[in-house]
Amino acid sequence: MVFGKKRKTxxxxxxxxxxxxxxxxxxxxxxxxxxxxxxxxxxxAEKVCYxxxxxxxxxxxxxxxxxxxxxxxxxxxxxxxxxxxxxxIRRSPPNANPMVVLRTALSALGMYDPDGGKNSEAANLxxxxxxxxxxxxxxxxxxRIRTGRPIVSADKSMSFAANFLYMLNGRTPKKIERSxxxxxxxxxADHGLAASTFAARATVSTLAGVHxxxxxxxxxxxxxxxxxxxxxxxxxxxQIGGAERVKAYIDGMLASGERIMGFxxxxxxxxxxxxxxxxxxxxxxxRHAGLEHLFEISQQIExxxxxxxxxxxxxxxxxxxxxxxxxxxxxxxxxxxxxxRTAGWIAHIMEQFRDNRLIRPTSNYIGGFDKKFVPxxxxx
Length: 380
Ligand code: ACO
What we know:
mainly alpha; CATH 1.10.230.10; 3 strands
């Protein structure tokens, strides 16, 4: 028996394995740079709204004003949920993780989508617009329901980010809130072949549809080693409580081999360019929101972790305090990440469909051979 005995050394965590070609985003981990379709994110930050970045990722170019207006109107028009999905959200257990509700509601949306079962480019684009818009509505509806307030419908005179805040808080957002959310969404929109993006591409490589792939991506993003880290960061800041306790906390965690949430990255060997922007916002917004102590604790943590481990904050670290300062409860942080990254997932799904081959890696079999079968009655 030779089958299964020839082994290749597996690449743990698939580090460095090239599993796709993409023209969507490039992570330059050595130089701490991130590019979307050729644009350095440092160039885009504070200059573009989220819809412009979605347009860039889906169509390969930034829109002109007319294209932007049309695209925005199309997205806002899709920001409503079928009654059945609204009902499902209302009936979800009050303490269910919002990411679980989001994933479940998104899965249910697949049953009601008029293009369900169709995978043509045109059908996928229609589904893409609905899914992106509906992710926003699932998250805001859940928050409104759980806080005992009526659901707010989208306002077609507002941008995507402004609508999200409007539907969340029931008031027109301030300019600063809108522009920060635009930048937060832009910074999270795509990031090469992250675990969740790989999950989405692997799922559609079987010709399963957009909703299935987004569910797979949401399931992957939820984990604390990926997008779930932002909620864990806030839990850590709350647990530490004051800047004077940072040293003891971090030293204790590292001495016992624990990971500091919001630090380290597979790709970056230097500062994550996204955290550079988020740190700046965190400082400004925390000051406005009376949360200076959270920014101060964050800074002390960054200093200590860099000194002891030589690792940098990733996107999840300062996004925690930015979101907290925007008034978003920590349980919803990963949902905001999901909303942003849905743009990237969809772009990857469409790219995968255009040149698809089943993604099917292999494994080394390390079990036994030639075992003697024992009938059930004789097994002990
Ligand atoms: N805290 C402490 N040590 C860390 C951390 C951390 N956050 N991250 C990495 N390390 C250390 C590891 O202990 C390991 O040290 P060793 O070589 O002495 O054993 C070394 O750095 C390499 O770690 P790996 O786990 O091999 O790195 P990998 O690339 O597999 O992991 C990951 C990357 C999962 C992001 C890791 O850095 C981590 O667990 N970070 C905390 C969770 C987090 O913030 N996740 C969000 C990532 S960004 C995103 O997905 C949006």
